[in-house]
Amino acid sequence: MLLRFAVAFLLTGVCFAQNLSSRMDQVVQFYASKNQFMGSVLVARGDEVLFSKGYGFANLEWDIANTPSTKFRLASVSKQFTAAAILLLEERGKLKVEDLVKAHLPDAPAAWDKITIFNLLTHTSGITNESGQLPTIPFATTVANVARFRDKPLDFESGEKYNYSNNGYILLGYLVERLSGRTLEAFLKDNIFTPLGMKDSGYDSNSAVIARRASGYDSDPLKGAVNSNYIHMSIPGGAGALYSTTEDLLRWEQGLFGGKLLKAATLQKMTTPFKNGYAFGLGVGSANGRKTIRHNGAINGFNTLLTYYPESKTTVVVLSNLVGSALPQISTRLAALAHGENVTLQSERREIQLDPAVLARYTGSYRMAGGLEMLVTLEKNQLFGKLGNQDALPLLPETETRFYQKAVDTEIEFSGADPRGKATQVTRRQGAAAVQGARIDDAEVKRLAEAAAAIAKRIKDQKPMPDSESALRKMIEAWRLGQPDDFLMAPNLAAAVRQQLPELQSALKERGATQSLSFKGVSRTGGDTYDVKFQKGTWEYIVVLDADGKISGGQLRGIALDKAQ
Questions:
Q1: C-alpha distances in Å from residue 232, one per residue of 105, 296, 557, 559
Q2: Domain harbouring 322, CATH code
C-alpha cells in the first residue's frame, strides 16, 4: 500500500513538472509566434531547472536555432559583474567603496573631487550618461574611453540624486584595471567566470571567433527582423560588454547568492539599495508581492533580463537577440508560474457583457503614479481608456471590475467607491509594472477633457500653432550659439537641452546654416511637425508649446527632448 502511494505521489510530481514546463513554453511561444521574442529562457528554483529552451534563430541567414547554450551580449546585465569585481578588490584590501575616486586616480578632473566609488556603483556620481549617440570608432584602451567624458561637467553634485550613468560603470571598469594591474576581461575570467564554472561567458570581441554566439537583430515594422547596427565592444566596457548564456547566468546566481564568491556582509552591501531602488549593479524591488533582485540590458540587437527572487531562490533568465519590449512580460509570467500562480495570456482572455450602469461607475479621470492622467469615457456602451497623449483604446470587461485591451497587453482594474458609487482607484498592469491611480475631481476632469478636445481639433484641422515656427527657429539658433534660452523653453526641456548641448552644437555645425522651415502637419499627439532644412541635410522636428508659449517638448530625428511629446 505504501509503495503504491509512493509511486502515485512520484507520478503526480512528474505530471506537475511536465504541465509546468508545458505552460511556460506556451507563455514564451505566445510572444515568439508574434515575432516579439527570439532568444533563450531559463527558470530555476535553487539548483533545480524548471524550464530551459531556445526560440527562433541565433543566425537568421543560416537558420541556426537558439539553444540554452547560445551566447548573447548581456548589455547592462554586465554591470553586476563589474560591481562584484570592485567588491572582490575591496575584500582584498585594494580599495574601500567609500574611497574618493581621486584617491585611486590622482589625475582625475577637479569636478570629480567629491565623487566616491559608492557614487559610481549607485549611479549617484553626477557623471553624465550622454544621451546623444555613442562614438562609432573603437578605443585602444579603457583610459581612452574614459577620456571621452572625463572633462565634461557633472549633471549634478555627487550624491545629490540618482541618474543612470553608463559612463560611471565604464570608469569602474577602469578602476578594476588600475588596481588589479590586469584588463577587466582577464580579471573577470580568473576571479569570477572560471571559479564559478562559467565556461561560456566572457568579454565580447568584434574580432574573435566565439562559438555559438548569436547575431543581433532589430525589428522593422515593414521588413521584420533586420541586422542591427555595428557597435565596437570597447565602447560599453564595464557598463555592458559581456556575453553569456542562460545556463551560465544560473551558475552566476547560484554562486553570487550561494556564498561562493563574496562574503555574506559584502553581498548584503551589494544588494542594499541606495536611491531609486538601485544597489551595486542591481535593482532591488518587488513583483507580485515578492522581493526581486534584477537588472535588464539593451544594446544593438540584444535585450536581456536577469531576475532573482531571494525568498524562494528562484532565477528567471530571458535573453533575446531581437530587440523588443516583451522581456518584462515573459519574465514576470514565468516567475508567476514558478511560484504556483495562474497566468492568463492576452489570447486567452474572454470579454463578458456588463450593464451600462456598471460601466458608468468607472468613467472619469485618474491621476496615475508618475503624473500621467488616464481618462476613462463611455461611448455607446463601450468603455475607453486614454493614457496621457496616447490614443483612446477600448477597455473590454473580463470581470465586473477588471478590463483588458486588445491592442496592447494591458490589464486595467478598478476598485473603491465614492458616495456616488464611482470607482476611486485604478490599477494599470503591463508586464512587470503595476501603476496605481486615484480619481481626480470633476473640475480637473473637465479641464483634461477640454484639453483633449482641443488637441483632437488641431489634429483634424492640421493647422500650426501661431508662434510655433518662430519659436522653433529661435530655439535652433540659440542651440547653435550654445546659449539655450529659458524664455523660449519650459524648464524641463531647457534642462534636457543643456545635457545634450555639445552634441546638438556639433550636429548643427556639421549641417551648416538654417535655410528654411516647412510645416508638415500636426502629429497624433498634438505637436507641430516641421522639416528644418540646412545647407547639408534636413531634420524633422515635432514641437509642442505650453500655455505660456514656451516650447515644452518635442522630438528631433527620433531623439526625444523631454518626454515623448
A1: 26, 20, 23, 22
A2: 3.40.710.10
- What amino acid is encoded at 409 in this protein? D
Q: Where are the alpha helices (DSSP H) in 92-165?
A: 117-121, 142-147
Task: Give the DSSP letter string of 206-238.
Answer: SSS--TTBPPPEEEETTTEEEEPPP--TTTTGG
User: What sign results for the dihedral spanned by CA atoms 486, 491, 492, 495?
Assistant: positive
Domains in the chain, number: 3
pLDDT of 200-225, one tens digit each? Answer: 999 999 999 999 999 999 988 788 89
The answer to whether residues 181 and 64 belong to one domain is yes
- Let me know if residue 389 belongs to a domain: yes
Residue appearing with cell numbers 551580449:
73
Buried/exposed code over 174-187 (b: 16+ C-beta within 10 A; e: otherwise)? bbbbebbeeebbeb
pLDDT tens for each residue of 149-192: 999 999 999 999 999 999 999 999 999 999 999 999 999 999 99
> How much is the pTM?
0.76
Give the pLDDT score at 495.
Answer: 66
Question: What are the phi and psi torsion angles at 518 (to 5°)?
Answer: -125, 125
Tell me: pLDDT of 14 over 50.
Answer: no
Cα angle for residues 113, 117, 119 (degrees, 5° grid):
80
Q: Which residue range forms the structural domain that includes residue 487?
A: 468-561
Q: At what angle do helices 246-257 and 79-91 cross, to 10 degrees?
A: 30
Q: Are 40 and 49 in contact (CB under 8 A)?
A: no
Q: Which residues pair with 396 in a beta bridge?
A: 404
